Amino acid sequence: MKSIKDPVHGYIQVDSSFLPLLDTPQVQRLRYIRQxxxxxxxxxxxxxxxxxxxxxxxxxxxxxxTRLALPREDHAHITVAGLLHDIGHGPFSHAIEGLSEEILKxxxxxxxxxxxxxxxxxxxxxxxxxxxxxxxxxxxxxxCSGIIHGDLDVDRMDYLLRDAHYTGVPYGTVDAMxxxxxxxxxxxxxxxxxxxVQAAESLLIARTLMRPAVYYHHVSRIxxxxxSLAVYEYIKDDPSLLRSLLMADDAACMQHLLHADNPSVSxxxxxxxxxxxxxxxxxxxxxxxxxxxxxxxxxxxRERKLAEKIADEAGITPxxxxxxxxxxxxxxxxxxxxxxxHSLCRLEEVSPLVTTLNETRRSQWRLGVYAPKGLTDVVSxxxxxVLNIKPFTRQERLL
Length: 399
Known about the structure:
The protein is an alpha+beta fold. The protein has helices at residues 19-22, 25-28, 50-67, 72-84, 97-104, 112-116, 118-126, 131-138, 154-167, 176-181, 197-215, 218-235, 241-247, 250-258, 263-273, 292-295, 300-314, 347-350, 353-364, 376-386, 394-398, and strands at 2-6, 10-14, 183-186, 189-193, 279-284, 322-324, 337-339, 344-346, 367-371. It has a four-stranded mixed sheet with strand order 3-4-7-8. The chain has a three-stranded antiparallel sheet with strand order 5-9-6, with helices on both faces. The protein has a two-stranded antiparallel ribbon with strand order 1-2. The chain is globular, with a radius of gyration of 22 Å. The termini are far apart.
């Protein structure tokens, strides 16, 4: 047994049989992948990594497995799934996952090959574990997968606590141990006792409040879009280069971009490195977009086509415009059911707060169009025309 000091959970105990997994290149690489991508440009303390988050998730998965009294083999698989669930992330976490999905048809959870081959595959087999079971748990395809992949999963518990700690944003408070103590396993999956409803509500509130404050902060979004555009320009003539970039860590990927032969790539990377970011030319909610249903499919390539149209309308080059259309937030729908005295019911039935939070999440959605300083006015006018945006309100003019 090895003890690792963690600022969020105190001491994390790692079973000696899992230490060889901890020392694999796939897991150690996570030390060099920032958990929050470019959020450190907003919150200077946000330099924590996927490695420590993976340790925290493993710790909570082990605690929940103990609470549920899982059989020894299931408990081990759940614990290791918590450790390995993020090994498929590319540099700066989610920053170029959209490109990966569109060009390579690959998500960060598509890690079956990594789990079954190479050093990691050998260590998994040596630990007496089945890589397929781990893969199914990470991708939400087993009875116990709600522990790792669900609306009340240990992944969310850890990243909300950890992200709040390192950013200094006070909205991510989650009583993870209370939630874990209120969970139990039945034939339909994980069930939450009534005693855990308030803790579950607290987690949902934290998710909702952290979205605009951290996860969708406009500066972070601008930086991610600049990075995505640099990567796209870098691989445009040879899409196979994307595979090698996805295997790189943050620093290695940035070095590729900074030293690229294409000046538009190296220029974007240098501006990112020195925090010379694009500015908001347009930043509006769903009520300002007349045809929101036509443009809310999250697609980097579609955003680039819209950026080209806006640039043409504004009389500038496409590289001077970035369009940011996040996926429209889905309603919170809890797969975990609540056990009252007589029956099972959905959390929405015992907590009217869920409906309010869904409305809040929808109101938080923003469409952004970004441009270099000095071009925001002309790009704003062009974007409003191309995207069929409603006229300025008085408040927007004051901003």
